[in-house]
Amino acid sequence: MSDSPAPAAPTTWDADGFRHQVQAALEQFLDRQADRLAPLGPDAERLLAEARAVVAGGKRLRAAFCWWGHLAVAAPVDEQALVRACAALELLHASALVHDDLMDAVLSLRTSATTMGATALASLAGDVEQHVRLADTVAARRAVRRLPGAARQTCQALALSAS
């Protein structure tokens, strides 16, 4: 255990500014994905539009917990990188919620009718997103190889866009 004290927390917390930074990081990420997924056509455009709707707004408590948890042990070397990590946590949670709704066939406040109409693609995208981006890419590749033709191609395209 280190003898050095934890970094001093800022005396003021700009919650609105932090939420704005997290939202901007999410939008930048989705903009990059839009460019990468453009060759997949209108289905990818609809999926990204739904992703934008799902991650818009909110209190960003998970992101704030991530931020303050990091500050409890170390000052950020790169604040923007920490904001992106906080945004990634929000994206993971949003993906899990949509995926859960789709698997349960629930039309809720989080999931619009358009998303429900794209159940197969969104479900696969949720699976690939969770495995490729944040976990074991070897397991994700094995799972993708077992999928039938069109589903495998879609997942491979999504996985390529994540790299």
Would you identify the regions where 5 or more consecutive residues have pLDDT less than 50? none
Helix-strand category: mainly alpha
Q: What's the rounded overall pLDDT mean? A: 73
| Cα-atom radius of gyration | 18 Å
Terminal CA distance = 36 Å
Overall, the morphology is: globular
Report on this model:
This protein is mainly alpha-helical and 163 residues long. The chain contains eight helices and no strands. Helices cover 74% and strands 0% of the residues. α1 (15-37) crosses α4, α4 (79-104) runs antiparallel to α6 (119-134) and α6 (119-134) packs across α8 (149-162). The model has no long low-confidence stretch (mean pLDDT 73). The radius of gyration is 18 Å and the shape is globular. The chain has helices at 15-37, 42-55, 61-73, 79-104, 113-117, 119-134, 137-145, 149-162.
Task: Describe the structure using short key phrases.
mainly alpha; 8 helices
Short description:
With 163 residues, the chain is mainly alpha-helical.
What is the secondary structure topology, with strand pairs?
Elements: H1 15-37, H2 42-55, H3 61-73, H4 79-104, H5 113-117, H6 119-134, H7 137-145, H8 149-162
Helix pairs in contact: 1-2, 1-4, 3-4, 4-6, 6-7, 6-8
